[in-house]
Amino acid sequence: MLSGNASPRSSGGDGYAGQVAGGVAAPSAVPSGALAAFAGAVLRLLSGVWCQRAVRVALALVFMAAGGAKLADVRGFAEIIHHYGILPVWGVGPVALLLPLAEVVAGVGLLFAVRGSLAAIAAMCLLFLGVLGYALATGLSIGDCGCFAPGELPEGVQDGSAVRGAFVRDLALLAGVAYLYAWRRLRRRMA
After folding, report:
1. Nearest Cα to 119, choosing from 165, 59, 65, 49?
2. Which of 2, 93, 140, 174 is the 20 to 30 A CA-CA neighbour of 39?
3. Are the C-beta atoms of 59 and 176 separated by less than 8 Å?
4. CB count in 10 Å sphere of residue 29
5. Do the beta carbons of residue 101 and residue 69 sit within 8 Å?
6. Are 93 and 78 within 8 A, CB to CB?
7. Higher-confidence residue: 123 or 140?
8. Are 118 and 180 spatial neighbours (Cβ–Cβ below 8 Å)?
9. How does this protein sit in the membrane (predicted)?
10. How many Cα atoms sit within 13 Å of 177 on the Cβ side?
């Protein structure tokens, strides 16, 4: 095999990664057949209706719980919004009431697969990421990000870790939204 031609064993089918210098086949750490089987199993799981339903229900419950908790203490949530310094004082109260209502309505809509609810959840995730990104970029020291309920964190968390943690959490929520959009697109292609 000095000519550089691939041997039948270097095709990747029997656990070989392929040809390296000198025409010698290098073994891979995982046989490609096992890797393909694992990838196929993961794709079957992710494309299944039960996985989609679990992600949809989880997202819906998160938004319903977050909105409901904020509605239970609108004044506390308004104070948190005010600490970000993004809105004028006259806009804080209406946003403190309307945003949690939108979260609950979108969450209920997503739970029952109402058209437009996933888009509303996606828009809110992007809004939340933008606000948290602003807080991180400007170095705001906010102990309570306001993501779920006022006072969700103990006093004294002023190092920005609450905002960083909320940013990562919202990225995970956005990943769930992206999965639901991808699942829809895959189902449309298969139909």
Report:
1. 59
2. 174
3. yes
4. 7
5. no
6. yes
7. 123
8. yes
9. Multi-pass membrane protein
10. 23
User: Which structure tokens are listed for 109?
Assistant: 């809509």
Which amino acid is located at 127 in the chain? L
Tokens of 121: 């959840």
Specify the amino acid at residue 167: F
3-state secondary structure the chain: CCCCCCCHHHHCCCCEEEECHHHCEEECCCCHHHHHHHHHHHHHHHHCHHHHHHHHHHHHHHHHHHHHHHHHCHHHHHHHHHHHCCCCHHHHHHHHHHHHHHHHHHHHHHHCCCCCHHHHHHHHHHHHHHHHHHHHHHCCCCCCCCCCCCCCCCCCCCCCHHHHHHHHHHHHHHHHHHHHHHHHHHHHHHC
* pTM across the whole model: 0.74
Rounded to whole angstroms, the Cα distance separating 134 from 87 reads 13
Checking if the pLDDT of 20 tops 70, the result is: no
**Count of C-beta atoms within a 10 Å radius of residue 142:** 19
Find out whether 80 and 141 touch, Cβ atoms under 8 Å: no
pLDDT tens-digit profile of 76-116? 999 999 989 999 999 999 999 999 999 999 999 999 999 99
